[in-house]
Specification:
about 325 residues; alpha/beta; Peroxisomal Thiolase, Chain A, domain 1; 2 domains; five-stranded mixed sheet; four-stranded mixed sheet; 13 strands
Length: about 325
């Protein structure tokens, strides 16, 4: 089985209709468009509205669109993995809910949580299921409804996040194209810099935890920025060096969309011009596990078979990772 590669053979994305602009945020907290744009590159973000509308709504639509696009019966899917840190509920998993929504039957499904690096962790997981020879069609979804855990009274964090989902189909190939290499790391010492403290077994929901705002996303922005730039750039360069790639060899860098300044710093370190960088942070903000597949979806028609593409991300945990793939179609 060693000659089996896993290749991305299809992709579809979904963003909600509601657009939360910087102008609207100006009416909610002490901020303004110039301040947000200069620090993050974000102009607007999409928000999923409605009671009982969770991350599964986003992921379900992405998977349905993927199946329609590929002319594929959902029952052909051998495994569904959902990378998310904003599940509908603790259990059943969001993957289970999406599987039921799209009619996967008894297909195995599970959630994976690695924050903003979730898609790359999920990709490494999915690739190895394919390489085992036991799975022919694996769907990986990156989806988050970050608006559900965002404190819209915190001017530093509420400007960052949006809601979205994207789904990719991975299939085996014996061609040279596909997912060539992935490196993932984590460092638990970052647990106090990015977290949501309430809601788990250590601090289950109480009136006190809710009143203290413990069920919202929190990060130490300045500290995280420095670590994110260093680790995201280092791991992207590491993947390039492991595969004898220079900046000129890279057709596209698909980075996690956390902050435009971080992306620019990573591209510079890699020796990749910004003309090769996929950017949609201006329109969608940080959609966490969805940012990388959302970029792949939007740039799909610009990729050519055999293009060298680097994916790179950094997230809470800390987690960080990078993948090298040769586009397969």
């Amino acid at each position: 089985m060693s000659n089996i590669q896993a290749a991305i053979t299809g992709i579809a994305g979904y963003v909600p209709d509601y657009i939360l602009t910087n102008a609207e945020l100006e009416t909610m907290v002490d901020t303004n468009d110039e301040w947000i744009t200069s620090r993050t590159g974000i102009k607007e973000r999409r928000i999923l509205k409605g009671e009982g509308q969770g991350t599964s709504v986003l992921g379900t639509e992405a998977v349905k669109r993927l199946c329609e696009k590929k002319g594929m019966d959902p029952k052909e899917i051998d495994l569904l993995i959902v990378s998310t840190i904003s599940p509908d509920m603790w259990f059943p998993t969001t993957a289970n809910i999406i599987a039921a929504n799209v009619g996967l039957g008894n297909t195995p499904s599970f959630d994976l949580a690695a924050a903003c690096t979730g898609f790359i962790y999920g990709l490494e997981t999915a690739v190895n299921y394919i390489k085992s020879g036991n799975y022919k069609k694996v769907v990986l979804v990156g989806a988050d409804k970050m608006s559900s855990i965002t404190n819209y009274k915190d001017r530093n964090s509420c400007i960052l996040f949006g809601d979205a989902a994207a789904a990719i189909l991975l299939e085996p190939t014996i061609e040279e194209n596909g997912v060539i290499d992935t490196v993932i790391h984590s460092d638990g010492s970052g647990k106090d810099m990015i977290y949501m403290k309430g809601g788990g077994s250590a601090y289950p929901p109480t009136h006190e935890t809710i009143d203290a705002g413990m069920h919202y996303f929190y990060q130490d922005g300045k500290a995280v920025f420095k670590v994110a730039v260093t680790n995201m750039a280092d791991i992207a360069v590491k993947v390039m060096e492991r595969n004898n790639l220079s900046g000129d060899d890279v057709a596209f860098l698909v980075p996690h969309q956390a902050n435009k300044r971080i992306i620019e710093a990573v591209a510079k370190r890699m020796g990749v011009g910004m003309d090769k960088v996929t950017l949609n942070i201006e329109r969608y903000g940080n959609t966490t596990a969805a940012t990388i597949p959302l970029c792949l979806w939007e740039w799909e028609d610009k990729f050519k078979k055999g293009d060298n593409i680097i994916l790179a991300a950094f997230g809470g945990g800390f987690t960080w990772g990078a993948s090298y793939l040769k586009w397969a179609y």
